[in-house]
Amino acid sequence: MYQSPRRLCSALLQRDASGLRRLPTPGLRRQSPPPAAAPRPASPRLLAAASAASGAARSCSRTVSSMGNGTTRLYSALAKTLNSSAASPHPEYLVSPDAEHLEPIDPKELLEECRAVLHTRPPRFQRDFVDLRTDCPSSHPPIRVMQWNILAQALGEGKDNFVQCPVEALKWEERKCLILEEILAYQPDILCLQEVDHYFDTFQPLLSRLGYQGTFFPKPWSPCLDVEHNNGPDGCALFFLQNRFKLVNSANIRLTAMTLKTNQVAIAQTLECKESSRQFCIAVTHLKARPGWERFRSAQGCDLLQNLQNITHGAKVPLIVCGDFNAEPTEEVYKHFASSSLNLSSAYKLLSADGQSEPPYTTWKIRTSGECRHTLDYIWYSKHALRVTSALDLLTEEQIGPNRLPSFNYPSDHLSLVCDFSFSEEEPDGRL
Length: 432
Ligand SMILES: NC(=O)C1=CN([C@@H]2O[C@H](COP(=O)(O)OP(=O)(O)OC[C@H]3O[C@@H](n4cnc5c(N)ncnc54)[C@H](OP(=O)(O)O)[C@@H]3O)[C@@H](O)[C@H]2O)C=CC1
Ligand SMILES: [Mg+2]
Fold this sequence. Notes:
Blueprint: E1 14-15, E2 21-23, H1 45-53, H2 55-65, H3 70-82, H4 107-117, E3 129-131, E4 143-149, H5 153-158, H6 172-186, E5 190-196, H7 199-209, E6 212-218, E7 235-241, E8 245-257, E9 260-273, E10 279-286, H8 294-311, E11 319-324, H9 332-338, E12 344-346, E13 363-367, E14 370-374, E15 377-382, E16 386-392, H10 397-400, E17 417-423
Parallel strand pairs: 4-5, 10-11
Antiparallel strand pairs: 1-2, 2-3, 3-16, 4-17, 5-7, 6-7, 8-9, 9-10, 11-15, 12-15, 13-14, 16-17
Helix pairs in contact: 1-7, 4-6, 8-9
The structure holds NADPH dihydro-nicotinamide-adenine-dinucleotide phosphate and magnesium ion.
Region (Disordered): 19-43
Cofactor: Mg(2+)
Organism: Ursus americanus
């Protein structure tokens, strides 16, 4: 089974001009493209095997793709089957039966395959972890959480109108390798994704072979289904490393707004750390997009908070909430989260000089309507029970470049957010 690699040791800590210590990310930068005469790399064995291994699910997706309007009904039915409004201990339908029968993958081997596929692309961007520790290190390894709207393939190619992004940069066979490379570079213990429309044929088979247990909750009326040659609906996905956590409880939540069911979803799971036996709740969501829907998002946020109140027994269980909230920090839904009795704080504020400001952007793209630079993605955490020990810095404007995102270097219009968490206090019995 794949073991989570050791984090960089404190000897590697560096201080930059801002006074924050930066940890260079592990040596996973893509090599410069080989000269034209270089032999072609070996064919991507693991990547190909992943697609083949998910045969049943994939053929389901294919059937769905060719079904036109019927697709929405089929997936809506599926979503309803998986939907529950409160926590329910039914993990049996969260794990694909395939997962247990697949051989583990060496992450280095998969990374090499991704690099081989990507050898004609420019090198990936360098991002460093900022050390945010204020006290002695915990005796347990931190919990690394990645939040990322990976951009649904059908939306990127069919609806998003990224007018400065060449269509070749969006080719799935390469873009999926850029996404995998990003995940393999930061090696999260928990991965919270939005706009996943290649769960069954790509992420579930590959990530399960890397040791993750995954859950997918599609949007009931995914806009992907309106795109020709779509790969099924997009939705939220949550993965955690099975060698670090045990699933205690899982809830797929279809969000409501003023009691009406909406098209937005969340997944909330209670996990138990195998090292410390400490439990915590992790949730992922993707709220309604676009201007004019601020009150709707606010209502969805209230519904999510209410569900999380129940799941955490009124904040007794520490909580981490990851999401594309589609809301700037000035919006009501942000304020609800910041002032909730769940006692949440937004982790990326810690990267600002005063610790009080969100980053200037988490998404940056150019549509027909013009440039869209916004802060919409957040990692919220229980500030009484958890502390953030490091966070991955964001890409600079220079790295993002004049054509913004997505690009040949970066696969999504949203940046990934990555944080390391530790429990802040010892439990009465001495456990951390
Ligand atoms: N068949 C039926 O009966 C019904 C179908 N539908 C379908 O659902 C869709 C709406 O779904 P809903 O979940 O509310 O969608 P949202 O408004 O939340 O947006 C869907 C996606 O569009 C992206 N997006 C945001 N802004 C723009 C923009 N300006 N241009 C293009 N894309 C953008 C969002 O990405 P990001 O989060 O990254 O910003 C998001 O992933 C409709 O398009 C319709 O196809 C809906 C109801 C009924
Ligand atoms: Mg989007």
